[in-house]
Amino acid sequence: MGKNLTRKILEAHLAKPARMKPGEEIFVKVDQTLTHDINAVMTYLAFEAIGLPRTQVETSVSYLDHNLLYLDNKTPDDHIYLQSVARRYGVYVSRPGNGICHAVHVARFGKPGKLSMGGDSHTPHGGAIGMLCIGVGGMDVATAMTGVPMRLKMPEIIRVKLTGKLKPGCNAKEVILEMLKRVGIKGGLGKVFEYVGPGAGALEVNERATIANMGAEMGATTSIFPADEQVRRFLKAQQREEDYRELLPDEDAEYDGEMEIDMSKLEPLCACPHQPDNVVPLRNVKKKKVQQVFIGNCTNTSYADVAKAALVFKGRHVHEDVSCTCGISSKQIYKQLMRDGYMEMLTDAGVRLLEIACGPCCAIGQSPATRGVAVRTSNRNFKGRAGNPTAEIYLVSPESAAATAIMGTFASAEEIMGADVEILGGIHEPESFPVDDSMIIKPLPEEEASQVKIVRGPNIQPLPVPEPPARYLKVKVSLKTVDNITTDDITPASAEFSSMRSNIPLMSQYCYHRYDPDFAGRAKEMGQSIIIGGENYGQGSSREHAAINPMYLGVRAIIAKSIARIHKGNLVNHGIIPMIFENPEDYDRIDRGDELEVRDLPDQMQTKKIWIHNVTKNTDFQARLELSDSELEVISCGGQLRYLKRQLEGKM
Ligand code: F3S
Fold first, then answer.
1. Beta-carbon neighbour count of residue 96 at 10 Å?
2. Which of 92, 79, 88, 91 is nearest to 48 (CA)?
3. H or E element that contains 331
4. From ligand 1's centre to the CA of 33, what distance in Å?
């Protein structure tokens, strides 16, 4: 049997072992790394602590793109640190205003066949050009930058055959929302979705990026499309045709599973609050008053996306009760839209243009009103994601978002445009972009770089390093959560909180702030504690602060029904033991405040089964460690930083 595309790329990067069996651990060499401002300080502090002179991968890029509000000194302190540390270690910097990391990376750095790891869960965006892009925690990015092969659970590779053609007024967003409807937010765990077939071949790179980007919402390891004529055209438009190489699955490629979507049958869809898989046809969403529309985010503000939204607005106006904003994903897209007159259509319609940044997507500005209904083109609609837990967030395509802004309630482009909706079918990505890399700072030559002084403002606090697990643990339960806790619940997003991410003593005070405002104080008072979680604990964003802050507050273990992939990796890296209930019903037999006792913890960990005594209830239960041997070594060392230093010093 032939090989699929994912396997071909993994094989080309395989360091060990020779066999690649789904579910088993493999180690792969990484070509590129990506970080962004609100997660990156910890990554570079860790890289500094490791002590290498320079990044060891082909290309490392640091994007300053998420928090550009500069409410006080904290974020500028972070940005100055990030810029100086990048100069010191041979890392490219994409300056504020150049664009959102994923949009810029695929356009300016991505290459078919390369393997990248990024400190952001939507790193799979780059799968649009036949690149294998995996979202990881910040400590993993620091590790990848050392050039050591990275561990990865060999995924199952699912063939998603796309057929048919999207109707005008429908967007690639419909394809990924249909996937979410079918697969669910946990259905992609341990899987790569490889999109093939005539429908996939007809999708342009920007449309593929929407689908690959939101594969993260299914918990997938990543998603990928072939590098074909569409990719060649895209790279040519980016004046990088020389970076193109054809990369296709073999005709008789073998897969671990199959799905099929006929895109011609799709209609405008909507993900309702508060999970991205709560998908229904847009026409079935109750017609309530919409308070806010946001057309923005890395997922859906390509040139064609915004141009189509602008055409829906053309000659019409935003409803007087709607606040409608638009944040475009890169400077080059912004310029091209301006040249082609689409920005004028937006402003004429009363759309407010925002800075080129992530912004409202992660609650950095434009929070909805109290109990406001927000309609967004983003990829996440978790409670509180927009900065206001009373709000409801609905996810739709840019075409539907524009129609909704005009109507003041949920509407599709067809409802607004009638037969003219056909015009939208004629909008494509440009044949050439106004390429301008003046906002990208190139790495310095090694000798010059070694002289660079790293600038640390008062917001840059040292990275806390955990201790190895104690032999005997007798600690209380500081928190018991429901299912599907997100990293946003653990570490809230917003301009204010995001600017604290390089200052753990400060930020940890706001751990679980919106979910349980007393948690941080309680955990601190307990000294050491355990958190009890439900299903899919730690889903969503890759932010490792959701592990670092609890660790700093003394949380030694999470015992949950299941733990999301990236978050589990972050827990391991930061020395919190991720345990899974052997019998999920034991979850119901534990309460907050119960005292739990574990004896001979390091020895029990080696068996990957741990007996826990509930002192308060006088009961016993068992948890298991769903960890590979190398993950077990990391956590036994007291986290990735200690482990890596020992490894690089040749002590392991
Ligand atoms: Fe930025 Fe939101 Fe994408 S925070 S990277 S626009 S998911």
1. 22
2. 88
3. helix 331-339
4. 17
Q: Give tens-digit pLDDT for 93-105.
A: 999 999 999 999 9
Question: What percentage of residues in the chain have a pLDDT greater than 70?
Answer: 100
Identify the CA nearest to 592 among candidates 519, 525, 483. 519
Residue 508's identity, in one-letter code, is S
Q: Which atom of ligand 1 lies nearest, measured to the CA of 102? A: 5
Q: What is the pLDDT of residue 551?
A: 98
Q: What is the mean pLDDT of residues 237-247?
A: 98
Of residues 122, 124, 412, 419, the one with CA closest to residue 270: 412
Sheet holding 156-163, edge to edge: 222-224, 191-196, 156-163, 257-262
**SS3 for 365-407, per residue?**
CCCCCCCCEEEECCCCCCCCCCCCCCCEEEECCHHHHHHHHHH
Tell which one of 106, 123, 361, 487 to mutate to probe ligand 1, the residue whose CB is within 8 A of the most ligand atoms: 361
Between CA 18 and CA 589 the distance in angstroms is 44
List pocket residues of ligand 1, CB cut-off 6 Å: 66, 100-102, 120, 122, 297-298, 358, 361-362, 379
Residue 628, CB-side half-sphere exposure with 13 Å CA sphere: 15
Q: Which two tokens stand for residue 420?
A: 């003219």
The domains located in the chain, with CATH, are: 5-265 (3.30.499.10), 269-421 (3.30.499.10), 473-493+503-648 (3.20.19.10)
Average pLDDT, integer, range 536-563: 94
Give residue 362 CA to ligand 1 midpoint distance, Å: 7
Mutate to test the pocket of ligand 1, among 65, 362, 486, 501 (most ligand atoms within 8 A of CB): 362
**Stretch (H or E) spanning 350:** none
Calculate the alpha carbon distances from 352 to 66, 295, 348, 355, 570 in Å. Answer: 19, 10, 10, 10, 37
Model pTM?
0.94
Q: How far is the CA of 409 from the centre of ligand 1 (A)?
A: 25
How far away, in angstroms, is 207 Cα from ligand 1 center?
A: 17
Residue that the structure tokens 């007809």 belong to: 202
Nearest to 570 by CA among 459, 466, 645: 466
Q: Which residues contact 328 (CB under 8 A, 6 or more apart)?
A: 296, 301, 306, 334, 337, 353, 356
